[in-house]
Amino acid sequence: MDKVVSSAQEAVADVTDGSTIMFGGFGVSGIPFTLIRALRHKGTKNITAIINNAGGRLANIDLAVLVKNRQIKKVIASYPVYPWFVSPFEEQYLKGEVELEIIPQGTFVERIRAGGAGIAGFYTPTGVGTVVENGKEKRSFNGKEYLLELALAADFALIKAHKADKMGNLTYRLTARNFNPVMATAARITIAEVDEVVETGELDPETVITPGIYVNRVVKGEKYEVRFE
User: Which domain holds residue 17?
Assistant: First the structure.
């Protein structure tokens, strides 16, 4: 099955208002910039964004594009703001215009992994005795307290990979791998932005991290020059 679509606009055409969307990336690495800009152009509103950080380092191409356009209703993240400048998300959050759920980073990725694996939830000691435990079930195992964390899943995952074949098998480049593979498993529809599309059979099977069974659409992204952190 050929999963390659002709444009980012086509790839996000069915992303509706109120969708929950996972966005890959960590800092400036592995972010689906082209898909984010296509979503900005489409104008989808009231998005719940599941993402490691809420954008602002690359304000013209990262999640801040959607934040500034008032398309984000809620952010679920582990690193929502930066200590050295005020991002568009932080401005809106301080005004009470957008919601925020902060999750410790290990718990964040494990909740997504659980969503992809069909696991309802899990117990973790992370966050016990902090504001993270507010409103969560707490149990003791072998004399140690744990919090119940529920799985995270999404309507869409917008992810970034290095190469794809036409069946949607994906490889990643270095640290751009980050959250992208696990997010690909935890959404109803996964859309992969890639640097290069090759014919089916050209990828070394040993290098494939995300099998095509998890990927619904592939689009070749635009090239962006960004500085590494």
Answer: 8-122+152-220
Give the model confidence (pLDDT) of 71-126 as tens digits.
999 999 999 888 888 999 999 999 999 999 999 999 999 999 999 999 999 999 99
218-225 average pLDDT score: 85
Radius of gyration, alpha carbons of the chain = 18
Domain count, the chain: 1
Contacts of 60 (CB under 8 A, 6+ apart): none
* Residues facing 220 on adjacent strands: 194
Going by C-beta distance under 8 Å and a sequence separation of 6 or more, which residues neighbour residue 18? 45, 46, 47, 73
* 128 part of a folded domain: no
Question: Does residue 163 lie in a domain region?
Answer: yes
**For position 122, what pLDDT does the model report?**
97
DSSP letter for each residue of 106-130: HHHHHHHHHHHHT--EEEESTTTTS
Instruction: Report d(CA 183, CA 76) in Å as an integer.
Output: 13
Q: What is the CATH number of the domain that holds 44?
A: 3.40.1080.10
Residue corresponding to tokens 């050929």:
2
Residue 17 lies in a domain: yes
Q: What is the pLDDT of residues 180-197, one digit of tens each?
A: 999 999 999 999 999 999
Asked if residue 106 belongs to a domain, the reply is yes
Return the closest-CA partner of residue 50 out of 105, 130, 127: 105
Burial 83-99 (b: 16+ CB within 10 A, else e): eeeebbbbebbeeeebe
pTM, rounded to two decimals:
0.93
